[in-house]
């Protein structure tokens, strides 16, 4: 019985420890044109300055919908 418990609990303890090490605080900072996100096409080739405005496109398109849904909910 101890062996079965060890086989189950040991991987769970390792997974919990690793997720605790990998976890962090996420932030949703506004992205401006000055600090364009890094978008790597190939190692060493950053196209973030070119594609930076396109990253915010879905957010800008959904702003009116969010503005309508928020008062309803």
UniProtKB/TrEMBL annotation:
Organism: Amycolatopsis xylanica
Source organism, top-level taxon: Bacteria
Keywords: Signal
Signal sequence, start to end: 1-28
Keyword match Signal: yes
Protein name: Secreted protein
